Amino acid sequence: MIRNPSPWLSRRRGADLLLGALLLASLAGLPVAAEAPERYLEKIADTPDLMQTDPRAEIAFGGGRYHCGPVSVSNALVWLGRNGYEKLLPEPIEDWADQGALVEALASEDYLRTSTHGTNESNFLRGVERYVEDHGYTIESLQYRGWTYHPEEYSGGSKRVDLDWLREQVVGASAVWLQIGWYRYEPATNSFRRFEAHWAALVGYEPLAQASVSTTDDSPFGGPAADLVLVVHDSAPRSGPTPHSDRTTLHPLESGTLVGVKRGLPVPASEYYRLGGELKIKEEADIGVLDGVVALRMGPSP
Length: 302
What we know:
The chain is of the alpha+beta class. The protein contains five helices and nine strands; from the N terminus they run ααααβαββββββββ. It has helices spanning 11-27, 68-81, 96-107, 121-134, 163-170; strands spanning 139-146, 174-186, 191-206, 229-233, 246-252, 257-259, 267-268, 273-277, 287-298. Helix 2 (68-81) crosses helix 3. The longest helix has 17 residues, at 11-27.
């Protein structure tokens, strides 16, 4: 299984692999695109938006309080299960209780190992890999890009999230998850102190000019919004129990330092984006930052 395609492949070998992959994907009936389109919203309708503490999901451990990781994974797996990867859903997902059972399986020691501290990057990556392979599928790539510590075999080769790369990961037989850090501003040192984090499923994107979302907000941090709006399904209770999609803007931070006890800090804030738009920011936070991204691309469905 290739967790992350090797960069040392020759151009000829890389071209051969690309042509082969496109042919296999075509034969398997998977969507194939030479490059990411300007706008991609095809996954929204078939991707659920479960609130992690919804009592209808019947999540026993903490009532789902710690389960943003497995809930966001379950949202994406339901889409894949409905689009060529049926074995990822051993039981039909017909209501929130069915999805809650999937969440509990994902949160278990067999997979994401969710605890009262949530789900860390290593457990998230290894848990997704184990789940996909245990259910009979191969993985073309499973990558992490961001500043937080993670196993080297999953490295996407950068501590920064490139927006062109991000577009490419969303399209087709894939799943993408955002790692959002919550920070408080410390003006004496012009630093942002991380105190908690959150996982959310990325289900699409569109150009800023085409998105129905405000490009300005009350935050004094970050520059004008980038020309890419992310469409996010956020499981947090603050997002509400009614399924919907949050158009999320990206504002490049202009100065300061991201600090905290998490391994990988400190890093220059100017390399990262503040999240705005419709995404609900944690009440105790001054800003939410796109700390990193996990991107899964499935192999061909047998």
